[in-house]
Amino acid sequence: MIKIGICGYGNLGRGVLAAIKNSKDMELVKIFTRRDPKTVKIEIEGDYVASIDDILSYQDKIDVMILCGGSRTDLPEQTPYLAKYFNVVDSFDTHANIPTHFKNVDENAKNSGHIGLISTGWDPGMFSLNRAIMEAILPVGNDYTFWGKGVSQGHSDAIRRIEGVLDARQYTIPKDEAINSVRNGENPTLTTRQKHLRECFVVAKEGYDLDKIESQIKNMPNYFSDYDTIVHFISMEELTKNHSKLPHGGFVIRSGKTGLNLENNHVIEYSLKLDSNPEFTGSVLVSYARAIYRLHKEGNKGAMTVFDIAPKYLSTLSYEELLKHTL
Amino acid sequence: MIKIGICGYGNLGRGVLAAIKNSKDMELVKIFTRRDPKTVKIEIEGDYVASIDDILSYQDKIDVMILCGGSRTDLPEQTPYLAKYFNVVDSFDTHANIPTHFKNVDENAKNSGHIGLISTGWDPGMFSLNRAIMEAILPVGNDYTFWGKGVSQGHSDAIRRIEGVLDARQYTIPKDEAINSVRNGENPTLTTRQKHLRECFVVAKEGYDLDKIESQIKNMPNYFSDYDTIVHFISMEELTKNHSKLPHGGFVIRSGKTGLNLENNHVIEYSLKLDSNPEFTGSVLVSYARAIYRLHKEGNKGAMTVFDIAPKYLSTLSYEELLKHTL
To answer: Choosing a second label site near B101 at 20 to 30 A (CA), which of A6, A238, B139, B209?
Structure first.
């Protein structure tokens, strides 16, 4: 059994816990939290919650630590630090800062003899892996990534920060017209507005001007101003009833040409339709924890990403079974 | 530049040639044929065709030999034999014999210090890689593979062997109803007949009984008797005009559950829509040739499959570029 620690227990931590329970070769050792462990309720029986202050005393008891904090402030600190003491996996998703994060983790992981696999999940993660392989196979072509339909927590948070907003949920929706054009091999040049639509469900506080809130949302730079945005005002009951799940998904599509005169077109498409974004992301993290456990046993160290991992390391099947049943 | 040899020059060999021409880091050294080299016309300028009898004299001039023979008689002999002298890649696709083929190649490749990567292309190949990763991420679930719409050369050949048939083209067509059920997460149990339809375009010789030919096709064991089969009799002109391309494609879909009570469903889908089956397969072979060239330089040897190859080895991008642009 591969012994797993979970550092941070929000939506993603709960997703990782469920994925461990559904994996035959994994066992949970401990969940580490910044909160008082006594106040943290978990969904399984047993004494599994400890303070993050005690994390280093578990060095010999944990094979891989899965980091479930946020990309803005938690992971830039935690992943390099914990790579000094554990094999670690994270889902760091601030694309622009990935090279720096990789370098910070690499240095500490190499010095301590551990592996730190960063930025896995679905994007970055599965989508990145597919983008890399698609481009390798069809070098003459373009790839397109669409997100949704799904809840963007960052955009939901941005709406909540507007004065007069009690709660909100924002769905990112890819536009069918754009997807179909890509699928048909038309290699379109698409603007931000042409690719995705943003639909917002907002609960307003009493007495606030709804038109003003709507206008503030639609004109918010970076988040909404470059998109077609639809705003619905609903009651708190309706939000709780119809918008409390965290579905997501998306598409990576590459359209490319082959032939001595580039006369043939091909379309490769990878898509995800997820009922629960954090549970799927947690499942990906757990598979990569398996991979780095094995690669560490083989003597590897340093920072890694999905680009470094051969598929056999992710699978619970033996190589013989893979040859016989999966190839 | 990675120096490539092509062994066997049919449809697949031509697809590999085009893929080499579209790859910036590859150059063709020689095409080896069993025919008299003078009789083999190729689509590029230059002295590129040699007899297969001279292949061993190219040991120092070729980094990777891409084998483009058939799986029935060529590859079971050629891949193990040539692995004694070259790094080799093949598209061996007789699923039941893959473990034996792997073993034969492994022994010779290990002894000679080469790598022999077998059974790549799209199925086996890209579909296998996706099946393995999907199952690792969603262990509680089912995967489904659908082929088509596309030309099955094996089924077309089977029709041509019927007395009174001049030529034929068979399309394998996945049934929308089955695909939609899988996409909706219904986890159906599907019979052979429920998954695919077979549509045949047949040119009959004059004076033969068309009803008899149609009945012989529809009742042919293994090939057609388990399927709904549609037969159209057409003229040779129509066959040449409308059915001379080799399109293909298909879908791998995994539907799986997560959550402590398996309460959430997820659907992962990988699909291909290919104008030219041999050119796409050739493009995959060339990417894997790049990978084993690099892995051989790192000191690896023996038989491999897509399960052994980390994505970074397939890509022409540097690791820094992958982190920056692709992750």
So the answer is: B139
Residue B18 CA to its chain's centroid (Å): 16
Express each pLDDT in A121-139 by its tens digit: 999 999 999 999 999 999 9
Nearest chain B Cα to A269, which residue? Answer: B271
Q: Do residue B279 and residue A259 have CB atoms under 8 angstroms apart?
A: yes
Nearest CA in chain B to A290: B136
Rounded to two decimals, the ipTM of the complex is 0.95
- Give B274-287 as a DSSP string: ES-HHHHHHHHHHH
Among A22, A98, A275, select the one facing B139 at the smallest CB separation. Answer: A22
* Chain A residue nearest residue B44, CA to CA: A260
Chain B environment of A314 (Cβ under 8 Å): 132-133, 136-137
What pTM did the predictor assign?
0.95
Task: Judge contact between A288 and A305, C-beta under 8 A.
Answer: no
CA angle B246, B252, B253 (to 5 degrees): 145
Return all residues near B138 (Cβ < 8 A) that are at least 6 apart: A283, B254, B255, B256, B257, B258, B266, B268
Which residue in the set A43, A133, A316 is minimally distant from B139, CB to CB?
A316
Q: What are the 10-residue block averages of pLDDT along chain B, 327 residues in total? A: 97 98 97 96 95 98 97 96 98 94 98 98 97 98 96 93 97 96 93 96 97 97 95 97 95 97 97 97 98 98 98 98 97
d(C-alpha B136, C-alpha B127), whole Å: 14
Gap from A316 CA to chain B (nearest CA, Å) = 7
Extract long-range pairs of A21-25: CB within 8 Å, 24+ residues apart: A21/B260, A22/A283, A22/B139, A22/B140, A22/B257, A22/B258, A22/B262, A23/A286, A23/A290, A23/A316, A23/B139, A24/A316, A24/B139, A25/A1, A25/A290, A25/A316
Task: Name chain A contacts of B18, Cβ cutoff 8 Å.
Answer: 258-260
The DSSP result for B158-218, as a single string, is HHHTSTTEEEEEEEEEE-HHHHHHHHTT------HHHHEEEEEEEEEPTT--HHHHHHHHH
